[in-house]
From TrEMBL:
The keyword ATP-binding applies. It comes from Pustulibacterium marinum. Keywords: Acetylation, ATP-binding, Ligase, Nucleotide-binding. It is an enzyme of class 6 (ligase). Residues 12-68 form the Acetyl-coenzyme A synthetase N-terminal domain. Its EC number is 6.2.1.1. InterPro entries: Ac_CoA_lig, ACAS_N, AMP-bd_C, AMP-bd_C_sf, AMP-binding_CS, AMP-dep_synth/lig_dom, ANL_N_sf. GO terms for biological process: acetyl-CoA biosynthetic process from acetate. Belongs to the ATP-dependent AMP-binding enzyme family. This is Acetate--CoA ligase. One of its GO terms (molecular function) is AMP binding. Residues 70-462 form the AMP-dependent synthetase/ligase domain.
Amino acid sequence: MSNYHIKHLEEYFQVYRKSVRNPENFWEEVAEEHFLWRKRWDNVLSWDFKKPEVKWFEGAELNITENCIDRHLRTRGDKTAILFEPNNPDEPAQHISYQQLYERVNQMANVLKSQGIEKGDRVCIYLPMIPELAIALLACARIGAIHSVVFAGFSSKALATRINDASCKMLITSDGSYRGSKTLDLKAIVDGALESCESIETVLVAERTKNKIHMKEGRDLWLQPLLDDAEVKCSAEPMKAEDPLFILYTSGSTGRPKGMVHTTAGYMVYTAYTFKNIFQYRETDVYWCTADIGWITGHSYIVYGPLANGATTVMFEGVPSYPDFSRFWEIVEKHQITHLYTAPTAIRALAKENIEYVERHDLSSLKVLGSVGEPINEEAWHWYNDNIGKKQSPIVDTWWQTETGGIMISPIPFVTPTKPTYATLPFIGIQPALMDEEGKEIKGNQVDGRLCIKFPWPSMARTIWGDHDRYRDTYFSAYENKYFTGDGAMRDEVGYYRITGRVDDVIIVSGHNLGTAPIEDAINEHPAVAESAIVGFPHDVKGNALYGYVMLKEFGETRNQDNLRKEINQQITDKVGPIAKLDKIQFVNGLPKTRSGKIMRRILRKIASKDTSNLGDTSTLLNPEVVQEIMDNAL
Ligand code: 6R9
């Protein structure tokens, strides 16, 4: 019991040591005391990173929805499980209690069954951030179907690739989605995708926008009438610990997405335990993660982690800029949000706007702030800390990946002293290692290297759907007996980790290794700059030279651009060193971003290298339109 909720730094070190000395005992205790099992495990862990094969809680049987819903009914039946805040602020919020969630999940599960879905079948979910999305995940889990959520912003082509990769039998979608002032025709995208997807037998369509859509006879069905007729009870399928719970795609270094497979028991235990501790969640808190459920952050920290703890979790359908840039702060005040978990890209976008948008609202309910998705730069960290947390709410800078299932390196608020831009210490049970280029572990502090994990943790992905060899090659072949994250990191004098960015973003200039993140940080600290991205391009003498794409806070900045370029390079010289000065600086209106807010450096590298014949698939970008503009103005 005492292990479940860490309250001070000494306790963290004590529990950490225990979790590393005897991981099996540690995780067994957590699993035993805090979850509902149909059958106990025979063996806590077996693993071999060479194959690679990892199994947690083998022999156990459980259903994750009994842990996320049923077991709360007696004590929390009337408590809000999901608090839905619609895109339009004039539309009332919906408070879905645990009892109501139970009924709606069971009804949906019965609909899936009546449409022929069985344990092990893959169901693709392509829905906007409406309650049906969370309910659909849980309904699949209830009957043992494997969900594969595709972010409802991906193109027909991207959707079709993912449906075909997992041979999904059913697709759940909606008639449309709202994003700010826009209404998107999701069903048309689905119809386009399904022209090349033979495995889909049924499409369930939730009504949201009342768009006029085409319903294909014999394939498409409106969801609501089926739900209305469905029983509110559906017994939960007993699942084996290592049965797949879901597939979630992540992009790799090649164009083909990787379907990361997460399994049931370990994922549940780790997401629940991290949620409780990394957010220091208490019974009456109102927790809001602004991610989309289409990403791992939404799976683990909107749906499974919070619900396993009986929490109130907010689902927001809209965007931070609609109806204006005060929307986030308005929601915090309206629902008395205690925890806000968002991304650096959102923080930077909001920090660019007039501070009055923030000051208009009472943010005193906030206790903990979170950041995820990319390294948070110094300026954004301080803006978040000063203006949103009022220096009272610790920032948890949480480093993790789709592959890791849960948060791996992060401060524990009120326990670990924070440090700007540092994800700080490994979470309980996580054993990081920094590796050098020869494959040797770098010991000691004040060092940097490539970030690996030495020992299995319960929520790690077990394979890539249909391609175990690629799983091994991508994650377990670079360093013997270690999981390789693809990220670089440094460890400071007290052992705090700072993630420096993808190691593939390291650029070697005149023999010096330069990381893009510190240079971008230096540029972003210039008062006129909103955001920037650095890439390398071939140079006769230096091997590579640096090309910077810089977005200014005010488009059409009146200052002389050549002067600005000089100032930016001076800033870099001051912060990083003259070696990191940029050869070319292009001012842009926007940077090409993935849907989860990551800059697509691959495209910027090609433009900088004047190699634009094959830019690859840009359809998955958030803002494909900026690519042409950047190409037209390239230097
Ligand atoms: C959860 C998520 C994973 C990659 C990861 C790293 C970057 C995520 C970060 C961070 C620095 C943080 N990343 N969190 N870098 N500090 N707090 O984002 O998963 O979409 O798979 O991305 O994101 O480069 O390797 P995913």
